[in-house]
């Protein structure tokens, strides 16, 4: 087994054109560059208290994101799951039931927005070994996937906020929502 070093990658912030550009499918999942990017994305998500991160957020226009839900300083009540790389993902079904929830983003530091998302989705993706998967996700994990999937299509959560009244700073969010 090859041991690869892990790096915390620089996260592109709102205003960087890479966040507004559509991504490209990954043709060779087994390429060392792709495998290293997966390791670095997982490491970056964990070290920055993210519950997910997409390749465009680290200036790679590839259809890849990591779902790494776990309680942390930014998401105190997140469910625990093993970090999951999703390569060339497709959301193949959305439930009609929508849920409003507060989202933040590593690429939009210091802000939260109230965003409506489907409560349940069905996703088709390949793992880091090239194996296909299809699974239904619900609630907070479904929200993470929809958020990261938006990044692959050049969108950020701000595009889904209905009103500027549905925005607040991270500090205000933590004092009102988390501690309130």
UniProtKB/TrEMBL annotation:
GO terms for molecular function: metal ion binding; peptide deformylase activity. Its cofactor is Fe(2+). The keyword Coiled coil does not apply. Fe cation binds at residues 105, 147, 151. The active site is at 148. Binds 1 Fe(2+) ion. GO terms for biological process: translation. Removes the formyl group from the N-terminal Met of newly synthesized proteins. Requires at least a dipeptide for an efficient rate of reaction. N-terminal L-methionine is a prerequisite for activity but the enzyme has broad specificity at other positions. This is Peptide deformylase.
């Amino acid at each position: 087994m090859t041991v690869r070093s892990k790096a915390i990658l620089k996260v592109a912030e709102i205003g960087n054109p890479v966040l507004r550009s559509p991504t490209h499918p990954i043709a060779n999942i087994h390429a060392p560059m792709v495998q290293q990017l997966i390791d670095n994305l997982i490491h970056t998500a964990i070290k920055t208290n993210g519950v997910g991160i997409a390749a465009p957020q680290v200036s790679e226009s590839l259809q890849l994101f990591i779902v790494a839900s776990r309680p942390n300083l930014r998401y105190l009540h997140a469910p625990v799951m093993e970090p999951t790389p999703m390569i060339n993902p497709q959301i193949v079904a959305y439930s009609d039931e929508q849920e409003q929830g507060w989202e933040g983003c590593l690429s939009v530091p210091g802000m939260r927005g109230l965003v409506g998302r489907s409560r349940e989705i069905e996703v088709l993706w390949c793992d880091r070994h090239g194996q296909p998967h299809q699974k239904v996700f619900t609630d907070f994990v479904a929200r993470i996937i929809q958020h990261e999937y938006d990044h692959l299509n050049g969108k950020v959560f701000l595009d889904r906020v209905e009103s500027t009244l549905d925005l607040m700073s991270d500090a205000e969010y933590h004092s009102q929502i988390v501690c309130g």
